[in-house]
Amino acid sequence: MRTRPIPAGVLLLVAAGFPAGARAQNRFPPDSLRNLKVLPASTTPRELLGIMRGFANALGVPCQYCHVGEEGRPLQTFDFVSDEKRTKRTARMMIQMVQVINQQTLASLPERPSPPLDVTCVTCHRGIARPVPLGRIVAEAVAAGGADSARKAYDQLRSTYYGQGAYDFSESSLIEAALDLGRARKYDEALAVLRLNDEQFPSSSGSMSAMGDVWLARQDTAAAIQAYRAALRRDSTDQVARFRLRALGRQP
């Protein structure tokens, strides 16, 4: 069943609660709804179940992620009305945020293509509850526990999510994270992330060229030149490495 577009950033069964009486009567789904604070009051139980399935699939979460209940227990034992969990309260704010994006921001785009694209849950979440970019996760892991921690975090995410679109496993993902670390003068962490990336793309010039930038920021000109030349050995058309070498007074 198709309903109105579902706002993004929301969690499973977050926008509404089923009546407490339904639990007492062991009824699921119930005949009516309570505690609707964001979704329209006219929403039916059948419509709500369809919406909740969309949330669950987009975020990869079970009911108890937002609602009071025990894993493995029947849904009629859950307290869907309760607002106890932070995730449910936060999700309502996410719904409102996306309503503003769809109804105001995107609606006012000049010469908006037709049919228009709306933001939905999967736009950001893509099967994960907290849509943190891969580069940030790896950067935080290397800062907290060094290169080994970063490699473990990367390998775990790759083995679990590769091919699902949840994370960006392309070469540029970790390069951008490393360059951000370099700009923050966290040079050791930046180089560790680039070495990890180089293991994934050993024939590409991208990581080596970025290493040159980090070494240059660290004021180690000799190491930077070495990295840029390594990049050009892999790809003679790498214009960044070529430009950097010329700026340093060296022949590419």
Commentary on this structure:
The structure is a single chain. The chain is mainly α. The protein is built from ten helices and no strands. The protein has helices spanning 20-24, 45-59, 86-105, 121-124, 134-161, 171-183, 187-200, 206-217, 221-234, 239-247. It is elongated, with a radius of gyration of 24 Å. The chain starts with 19 loop residues before the first helix and ends in a 5-residue tail after the last helix.
Helix and strand sequence: HHHHHHHHHH
How much beta, percentage-wise? under 5%
**How helix-rich are the residues, as a percent range?**
40-55%
Uncertain segments of ≥5 residues (pLDDT<50)? 1-16, 20-25
Q: Can you describe this structure in just a few lines?
A:
Helices cover 53% and strands 0% of the residues. It is mainly α and 252 residues long. It starts with 19 loop residues before the first helix and ends in a 5-residue tail after the last helix.
Q: Any key phrases for this structure?
A:
252 residues; mainly alpha; 10 helices
Task: Give the secondary structure arrangement, pairings included.
Blueprint: H1 20-24, H2 45-59, H3 86-105, H4 121-124, H5 134-161, H6 171-183, H7 187-200, H8 206-217, H9 221-234, H10 239-247
